[in-house]
Design goal:
Elements: E1 9-12, E2 15-18, H1 29-33, E3 36-38, E4 41-46, E5 49-53, H2 55-68, H3 77-91, E6 96-104, E7 118-125, H4 135-138, E8 140-148, H5 165-177, E9 182-186, E10 192-195, E11 199-204, E12 207-211, H6 221-232, E13 237-240, H7 244-248, E14 252-257, E15 261-268, E16 271-272, H8 280-293, E17 304-306
Parallel strand pairs: 8-9, 8-15, 12-13
Antiparallel strand pairs: 1-2, 1-7, 3-6, 4-5, 4-6, 5-17, 6-7, 9-10, 11-12, 11-14, 14-15, 15-16
Helix pairs in contact: 2-3, 6-8
This protein binds 4'-deoxy-4'-aminopyridoxal-5'-phosphate.
4'-deoxy-4'-aminopyridoxal-5'-phosphate (PMP) binds near residues 197, 220, 221, 222 and 256.
């Protein structure tokens, strides 16, 4: 396993700490009960310098996730956004992955977390393609998981919380052990939900579909970007229920996610999707996405926040 590339500074409760000193106690609530909410954000090296993609939307989602779990983040959202930008500057990075995390810290180990402190951390580091170097062009091979996504009213899927990723881990471990790059997980109703860390889009007869937000998905910010860019290109995206077998007979399928960006899926359960290559509609949306995030074209939706 490649080691995580270290950067210099981690922001922790308002302080800049050296990377190796950003530690917590083993009896912190989060270690035992998964009580954290977090974000994954990317900073791109654009033509006009480093810029964070959809910073405000990610921080809003972080505060929404915290609200669901009744965690009070002791900073206004603007201050948290400023801290993200300052942390990138402190590490002198041009492009990076950004991981803000807010968690229940060291206090008590009862299940009720309300007496534990709420700690906030921001780490940034260099991170390339999530699903492999060729994924963006050649596409990935995925399998439908034997695991289901969390049922409604169990673990809230709309919160990006640490504990949710126990489900994602089972999906990803199984997929990798079966030789797939990633897994697709179905909801308890048997309909398509998402990948272990990505949303999914399906194209058939030039119509684009994606599971609606009540199918146990995380409402991805890249998903929203892809829907918006498809509309900019004059295409419609229908959000609805998608049966598993609809994936098999699709013309194109792709994943969206901050880490995965826009990655074509060329095989599902060993069946070739379309002609087995990145499809033309996927390519169009993917190209526009990368043109926007790298500043090649105007930023029509104001999605980029300059770091300097
Ligand atoms: N679903 C899950 C379960 C995820 O972890 C992610 C990554 N945050 C996504 C979807 C995609 O969301 P986003 O585009 O906001 O990164």
């Amino acid at each position: 396993m490649p080691e995580m590339p270290k950067s210099n500074i981690i922001w922790s409760n308002g302080e800049n700490l050296p990377w190796d000193d950003a530690k917590i106690h083993v009896l912190s609530h989060v270690v035992h009960y998964g009580s954290s909410v977090f974000e994954g954000i990317r900073c791109y090296d654009t033509k006009r310098g480093p810029a964070v993609f959809r910073l405000e939307d990610h921080i809003k989602r972080l505060y929404d996730s915290a609200k669901i779990y009744r965690m009070e983040i002791p900073y206004p959202q603007q201050e948290f956004m400023d801290a993200v930008l300052a942390t990138i500057r402190a590490n002198d990075l041009k492009s990076c992955y950004i991981r803000p995390i807010v968690f229940r810290g060291y206090g008590s180990l009862g299940v009720d977390p309300m007496s534990c402190p709420v700690d906030s951390v921001i780490a940034v580091w260099e991170w390339g393609e999530y699903l492999g170097a060729d994924a963006l062009e050649k596409g990935v091979s995925v399998g439908i998981s034997s695991w289901n996504r969390m049922a409604p009213n169990t673990i809230p899927a709309l919160a990006k919380a640490g504990g949710n990723y126990l489900n994602s881990q089972l999906v990803r471990i199984e997929a990798n052990q079966n030789g797939f790059d990633e897994g697709i997980v179905l909801g308890v109703d048997g309909l398509v939900s998402e990948g272990s860390g990505e949303n999914i889009f399906v194209i058939k007869n030039e119509q684009i579909y994606t599971p609606a937000s009540h199918y146990g998905i995380l409402p991805g910010i890249t998903r929203h970007s892809a829907i918006t860019l498809a509309r900019d290109l004059g295409m419609r995206v229908e959000q609805r229920g998608i049966p598993r077998e609809f994936l098999y007979i699709a013309d194109e399928v792709f994943f969206t996610g901050t880490a995965a960006e826009i990655s074509p899926i060329t095989k599902i359960d060993h069946l070739q999707i379309g002609d087995g290559k990145r499809g033309p509609i996927t390519e169009k949306i993917q190209k526009l996405f990368f043109d926007v995030v790298t500043g090649e074209v105007e930023d029509p939706h104001g999605w980029l926040t300059p770091v300097y």
